[in-house]
Amino acid sequence: MNVLSVVSEVYPLIKTGGLADVAGALPAALAEYGIHSLTVIPGYRKVMAATPDRTEIAVLADVLGFEARIFLCKASGLDLLIVDVPALFDREGGPYQDASGAPFEDNWLRFAVFSLAGARIATGEIAGIEPQLLHVHDWQTALAPVYLRYRLGSALPTVLTLHNIAFQGQYAFAIASELGLPASAFTIDGLEYYGDVGYLKGGIMTADAITTVSPTYAREILARPLGMGLEGVLQKRRNDLYGIVNGIDLDIWSPEQDALLPAPYGLDSLDRRAQNRAALLDRVGLPDLGGPLFAVLTRLAWQKGSDLIEPVADEIFAAGGQIIICGEGDASIEKKLIALAGRHPDKVAIHVGYNETMAHLIMGGTDVLLQPSRFEPCGLTQLYAMRYGAIPLAARTGGLSETIIDANDAALARDVATGFQFYPVNAESLRHAIFMVSEFFRDQQTWQRLQRQAMTADFSWSRSAAQYCQLFEALHDHHLRASKIA
Ligand code: ADP
Ligand code: GLC
Known about the structure:
- The structure is a single chain.
- With 486 residues, this protein is α/β, with parallel strands linked by helices.
- The protein folds into two domains: 270 residues, Rossmann fold, CATH 3.40.50.2000; 189 residues, Rossmann fold.
- Helix content is 39%, strand content 20%.
- The chain contains 19 helices and 18 strands.
- The strands form three sheets. Strands 3-4-5-2-1-6-7-11-12 form a nine-stranded mixed β-sheet, sandwiched between helices.
- The longest helix is centred in the C-terminal third of the chain and has 24 residues.
- The chain starts with a strand and ends with a helix.
- Alpha-D-glucopyranose binds next to helix 1.
């Protein structure tokens, strides 16, 4: 079976978060089940620079007035199609924001054009490319199934994966006439969303199936507050909503063979973590005070509870602990954390920015990974952490609640605990959890048991890929039967 995956970021070419990791890893996992994926991404400046060996295979004329050159290439084992529209994608900055961090004002147009190009490729406009299913991700590509149904008249099966519904692609109704869609697409069963145009809402109403990245998040978004306005729409589609938890790419995230670690290690050489811890402290310029090391590796955002770190810092210091933060995002949170590090130069270090090497060093060297997320569709960093024997201390929400086994008495007695959870997500309960974790840390024997249990938990993609495969095949079979009847 051939699947066309249309997505706005993919590791290692372009990444702002877990979406890229998933888009980069799922094709290889699906290949094990006989599914071939072709991944379609925008020709951002960074992507064009990283793919000198690409070949032009087609030109799509008049994609909402733009000409899109389509390139085929292979990169890091992925089969890629690049949609090159320089006027929209050849820019400084990230995929969605300019260099100063402000969202591009024409994102509505950039991702409408990209989605329409993806939909046209899905219907077989380019000779030799005939997918049996279209897979799209988040608001950026949610319009593709809408274009398929309302503009291209295609019944090709479609799956929309929700990685994060906080971002919805909601725009003033004034853009409706620019999208190249008939009036019938803008009703309550389509794109109309509280009087605006909602890309994600349109995708949810139109796709044959909707998946999200953990069963818990799939339940949470059916109601307030985590439905974030979409709960009613999702309720309508609840029979077609599936939760499939993300896996991790073990070729990239394995402490035994991680070239970015000064001292790779495994279950039998956990003591080598000490060298990584020393290297990490050294890298950020902190002395080793001997207590538990708490690390934060994330987008600094309200979603991630990054504003809760400063209020709980004293509890960490009281336990003899230190804090290392690596992240970027919300300017006011950044400012507060920089000030915190300034006040406690031997206890707190912050690296503002995105840094792949630091990410690996943190996993290989920190004792605790702190994740006070207010919501978390799946979360990947806790999975990387556990694989590396860094113990997650995380909020009990979304994917965090089902991928971490809390070290409560029952789990400890059965030797299955892999981390710590706390709830509700506020400074007070986080302080309490930090106290508990620090007490555990004093007992290094129990701590190492936790580490081993975390490291041996199965976070590979295979089970989840099997679930995607089952869903894709069911939709494909249904489509074949329906077209025979017609
Ligand atoms: P989200 O997609 O919501 O940001 P995830 O946990 O799913 O959260 O994925 C985050 C991804 O981004 C992980 O691969 C993580 O390692 C990476 N990451 C986050 N912050 C940084 C950073 N400052 N430097 C390097 N990698 C980061
Ligand atoms: C989103 C979510 C995160 C999830 C990732 C990949 O960015 O915030 O929880 O792990 O997508 O699915």
